[in-house]
Design goal:
Layout: H1 12-34, H2 44-47, E1 50-52, E2 55-57, H3 63-68, E3 70-74, E4 82-84, E5 88-90, E6 97-103, H4 118-142
Length: 143
Amino acid sequence: MRITLKIKTVSGEDFKSACKAAEIVVATQALKDTIPFVPALTGVFSNMARTDGNEIVYTGDQARYLYEGKVMVDAATGKGPMNIPDVGLRWHKGATLTPTAKDLVFTTDMHPQAQSHWMDASYKKNGDKWARVAEKAVISSIG
């Protein structure tokens, strides 16, 4: 019996480049997989999320507020946002927010697994999948 192995040598730079490309692929997959965990009333907030290279970015004033999952108050006044007619709840300009001990309550009508710290919850469920996606992306980049 004769076995012949052909092993491709990969330079450090090629491997680094493949890993960088894989990070972007994994970020895209993670964003997609995390949607069911993101709090949503209308879907606008989760639809505003995007990838920026290897990072996932949730935009909007409410992102930190929702991710922490705590009712926030103005650090200086200890009060919540004011209700502006025909606009809704708004903080005064320059307000520094601080979390209270009170948890936000999320509706699960649109996203049944909605919760604070949604990336952590998604990672717990999908982390192994993301590792496989990364491995496949590196291998396909190296060729």
